[in-house]
Design goal:
By secondary structure, this protein is mainly beta. It has one domain. The protein has two helices and 13 strands, in the order βββββααββββββββ.
Length: about 200
């Protein structure tokens, strides 16, 4: 059950920037509602090529994320053939181990769905559509030096282990297993590498 994938990651949530959840502090709202987005540039699981595919997770967690019982809707790319869909499901639900399994240990109610996913990255901006249920756009902030986003390294909780670049949502609307919308709130962009 070996795999290795890498690519482009971003998340956006309802917390004010910067999200305190990554430092094990309570969310700034009654829940932390968020989306996690993975665009796989290259990689495979058990010989199945996953390059070019996407996975997106919508999450509603308690105010303190480490309490667990997250409500999760995982959307896997409907362009994937069945062996690819199975690989994506196993990786992003934590069944295949690796870092994402640590995050999956916090899941409560979790559903896996197939959906059309449109991802785009242009410089520090990321946009995403998942069918009719999710529409989000985020943009990296510029630090005091005038070049590049502020960076957070080695947080206490995170879906990726690579440095997080601070961003802000321009808009976020989710109308799926639960509903939320926000703008001008926390976002992070990053690269990711997962192995299991």
């Amino acid at each position: 059950m070996a795999y290795r994938i890498e690519g482009d990651y971003f998340e956006a949530c309802t917390c004010e920037a910067s999200c305190p959840c990554i430092m094990l502090s309570p969310a700034t709202e009654d829940t932390c509602d968020l989306v996690l987005v993975w665009h796989i540039r290259r990689g495979e699981k058990d010989g199945v090529d996953l390059g070019g595919l996407d996975a997106v997770m919508a999450v509603r967690s308690p105010k303190v994320m480490t309490e667990g019982a997250w409500r999760v809707a995982l959307y896997v790319d409907d362009r994937a053939a069945e062996p690819q869909r199975a690989a994506l499901r196993d990786i992003f639900t934590g069944k295949s181990g690796g870092h994402i399994a640590n995050v999956a240990a916090l899941f409560g109610d979790a559903r896996v769905l197939e959906a059309p996913i449109q991802f785009a990255a242009i410089d520090g901006r990321r946009t995403l559509r998942v069918g009719e249920v999710l529409d989000v756009e985020v943009e990296e902030l510029t630090g005091m030096s005038g070049s590049g986003a502020p960076v957070i390294e080695n947080p206490l909780l995170g879906a990726v282990t690579q440095p997080l670049r601070q961003a802000r949502s321009k808009h976020l609307r989710y109308e799926g297993d639960f509903t939320f919308s926000t703008a001008g709130r926390n976002s992070f962009t990053s690269d990711f590498v997962y192995e299991g």
